[in-house]
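> example.struct
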């Protein structure tokens, strides 16, 4: 997987339906060139998944005839070596041609022992929340110490976002809180509405 490179040059032109996105992946530590904002949503979702160890955009070309071919949008690999091939396509654009290509791609992937999935997009709330968390995805030098402080705050009682903000005098706890939420160390409902009364819940904590 780590020897694979994108086999398609994504460019923008006058008649392009999509605008290419050049996104930095924390998983690979490098830039991925994507064809659309929907692919960027997918990449961010996978980039946040701690089980995912590698990503490749436009990983290969499938050809069935001179007029029938398909470039899948993304390929991911987990830490256990499970490979998934992805296409990003809104439901309203999954026409007969795409559905046929998706079925054939699924068969080709199954023959290799890979999974194939179609990503149709996040809800508006999920997208906005994911973009917010992505701003805190890079670990900063103060975060290990701030993480210890956050665990101390939650040791004996439930703590909310508002209480963290009231305790934080320099922004270190809040920025660390968002980073931990991006990593998945803190559990947050992406589809939910977050506010001052949202509780800090550590992943794996007993309710």
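> example.seq
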């Amino acid at each position: 997987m780590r020897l694979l490179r994108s086999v398609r040059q994504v460019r923008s032109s006058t008649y392009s339906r999509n605008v290419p996105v050049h996104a930095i992946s924390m998983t690979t530590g490098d830039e991925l060139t994507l064809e659309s904002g929907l692919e960027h949503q997918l990449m961010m979702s996978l980039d946040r998944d701690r089980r995912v160890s590698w990503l490749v955009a436009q990983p290969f070309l499938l050809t069935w005839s001179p007029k029938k071919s398909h470039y899948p949008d993304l390929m991911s690999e987990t830490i256990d070596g499970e490979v998934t091939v992805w296409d990003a396509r809104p439901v309203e654009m999954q026409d007969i041609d795409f559905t046929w290509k998706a079925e054939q791609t699924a068969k080709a992937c199954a023959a290799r022992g890979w999974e194939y999935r179609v990503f149709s997009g996040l809800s508006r709330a999920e997208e906005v929340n994911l973009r917010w968390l992505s701003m805190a995805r890079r670990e900063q030098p103060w975060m290990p110490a701030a993480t210890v402080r956050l665990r101390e705050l939650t040791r004996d009682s439930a703590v909310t976002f508002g209480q963290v903000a009231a305790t934080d005098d320099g922004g270190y706890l809040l920025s660390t809180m968002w980073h931990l939420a991006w990593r998945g160390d803190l559990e947050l409902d992406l589809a939910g509405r977050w506010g001052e009364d949202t509780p800090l819940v550590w992943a794996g904590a007993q309710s």
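> remarks
The helical segments are 37-48, 96-112, 124-134, 143-153, 161-167, 172-183.
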